[in-house]
């Protein structure tokens, strides 16, 4: 489940990958994670990073803040030197609990492909409620405690030029 429908997503478009499978509960995530961490400790397997990423937007889980809290506690118990990373499209950072959870992780990696609203709507295809000005203000509110991830593209999509490598897209936010 993802709140964006990016034209470059390696998982495919949202319409192609809709599922009726419910998200795992907070307790299911915690139990599965703790079981795996115990197994890794027993087999003397190391762990360097816990990553929230993959087939969807992690912050859209209704219990994302609590899952982050559980993950940090389990990390501190089993692999205290490991980092916790979240790869997010930043579409839910306006939720105070999500913002706070992201601010607690070691690597808060947030997507911003450009600061041009038209380009974002064409390439990232966010929901109508998405506001680029609000998103950029919230990114600034992390006061440097985030990593901006950008996908630079050059090509044609549905007959339209897609190129955010030009100075008009890059220079305004450097």
TrEMBL record:
Record lineage: unclassified sequences, metagenomes, organismal metagenomes
Keywords, comma-separated and alphabetical: 4Fe-4S, Iron, Iron-sulfur, Metal-binding, S-adenosyl-L-methionine
Protein's name in the database: Radical SAM core domain-containing protein
Domain Radical SAM core: 2-158
GO function terms (MF aspect): 4 iron, 4 sulfur cluster binding; catalytic activity; metal ion binding
Required cofactor(s): [4Fe-4S] cluster
Gene3D superfamilies: Aldolase class I
Pfam entry (one): Radical_SAM
